[in-house]
Structure formats: C-alpha cells, structure tokens
Write a structure and sequence with these properties.
Distance between the termini: 33 Å
Order of helices and strands: EEHHHEEE
Number of helices: 3
Radius of gyration: 14 Å
Structural class: alpha+beta
Shape: globular
Number of strands: 5
Length: 112
C-alpha cells in the first residue's frame, strides 16, 4: 500500500538519521539503499537547501513541533531540480522523549 501512494513516507531517528523511506525516494534521487541511510539523504538535496533544512529540523527537534519544510532534489546532474514538501511529526515515548519522526514527502507543483 505504501508504495502505491504518490507521497514518499519516511522515518528518521530523533537526530535526523534516515531509518526507512519509500522506494519512490530511490527512484527520484537515484540513490542506492546504502546511500540514503543515516544522514546520506542530505546528499540528494540542492546545496543551497541543506543548511536551511538542517536548521528547520533542529528547531523541530528542540521543540517537538512538527517538521514542515521544502527543499529541492534531482535524479542526476542532467535533470531539473524538483521542489519537495516534507512534513513530519514526532512519536513520543512514555517518558515524553522523541522516539522517532514519521513523515511524508511530496512534489510541489511548479509555481511559475
């Protein structure tokens, strides 16, 4: 079912390391299973979007508020950048600490 959705579901740990992602992420970024794990997923982002993405995630990690951000990815250097919208929410343990983050990514329609 998850692979049929147009969105790309993902799971990250409390520090932002990728734990699981839909096969569609591999299709739109050409990353291998080994490349996206941990912080490797950041290598798919446009260089100008990496630091703002990290800053937005850090703010969410510190507050527990939902992640809501946009960044660009592409399949190869010859392909155009795709603008993606990522949203996620924390899963809290009984002690109130974040166990992981669940979210989804979807392509943003061209604004031109």
């Amino acid at each position: 079912m998850m692979e049929l959705m147009p969105q790309i579901p993902w799971i990250i740990d409390p520090e932002g390391r990728a734990l699981d992602v839909s096969q569609r992420w591999l299709e739109i970024t050409s990353m291998t299973d080994e490349q996206w794990r941990g912080f490797g997923w950041l290598n798919a982002l446009h260089p100008d979007d990496v630091q703002p993405t990290l800053d937005a995630m850090k703010a969410a990690f510190e507050t527990g508020h939902p992640i809501d951000l946009e960044y660009r990815v592409r399949k190869s250097v010859n392909d155009p950048w795709k603008r993606m919208h990522s949203r996620g929410s924390a899963r809290f343990g009984a002690d109130g600490k974040v166990l992981c983050w669940y979210g989804c990514l979807e392509e943003v329609a061209d604004r031109s």
